[in-house]
Amino acid sequence: MMMLDVRNLSASYGKVRALFDCSLAIAQNEFIVLLGANGAGKTTLLRALSGTIRSSGEIAYMGSDLQKIAPERRLQNGVAQIPQGRGTFTEFTVDENLTLGATIVSDTRQVRQDKERWYDRFPRLRERRSQLAGNLSGGEQQMLALARALMSRPKLLLCDEPSLGLAPVITREIFAIFKELRDNDGLTLLVVEQNADLSLKFADRAYVIEAGHIVAGGSASTIRADELIQKSYLGD
Ligand code: ATP
């Protein structure tokens, strides 16, 4: 059984339709990238899953109907989203951001342990734990956004364009961390990206979205090798 099974997902902004009957499925512990050009509907699809916009269609998630679960309860059910622009609290310190990421965790000992775990994984965040998040570099802020999301102990992590504004070498580092989280921590990831070339080196599978339609899907290596897909949708 798939962890997430999305059928005929549609969404609109007023009269403008942004998603047309999108179907996709993600197995537990898969690392999926959602590729597509500017305005293709990638962000809208993530928002529909996290519930930040209304959508129609089926979203089966670990045996539940996600459409019936209120957006603010989806985090409690293990669905965490890192929005475009990272969504860290710039006026709070790194450590406070991690605390805020764990608001749904009531066991304070667990929060302390999780913090240590992610500080071990992101030593630069430990070094800067008392600094304001707004003073971090773009790459450090993306790592903070990731660590903050991890503090909620997600099962499925949705991440919107982590590479935005980052140098290629930093983007590579972020994708290597995603893969590591998939390999070592049992996380399932759906990451929206425009950088197809790089993200396909790390992901297991990919979907391609164009003008609100899912137009292709397959293993990362298949998508990478498909010249027609590359030419038609990935701007290669
Ligand atoms: P990007 O890489 O630029 O974020 P995207 O693939 O994430 O692009 P979406 O942001 O999902 O694309 O946009 C899909 C379509 O919906 C676009 O045509 C866009 O203009 C439209 N759209 C997005 N947000 C809104 C909004 N708040 N109001 C009206 N239309 C919107």
Automatic annotation (TrEMBL):
Record key words, sorted: Amino-acid transport, ATP-binding, Nucleotide-binding, Transport
Domain of life (superkingdom): Bacteria
Classification via SUPFAM superfamilies: P-loop containing nucleoside triphosphate hydrolases
GO molecular function: ATP binding
Signal sequence, start to end: none
Matching InterPro entries: AAA+_ATPase, ABC_transporter-like_ATP-bd, ABC_transporter-like_CS, BCAA_Transport_ATP-bd_LivF, P-loop_NTPase
Domain ABC transporter: 4-236
SMART domains per the UniProt record, alphabetical: AAA (SM00382)
A Pfam family annotated for this UniProt entry: ABC_tran
Similarity remark: Belongs to the ABC transporter superfamily.
UniProt protein name: ABC transporter ATP-binding protein
Species: Mesorhizobium australafricanum
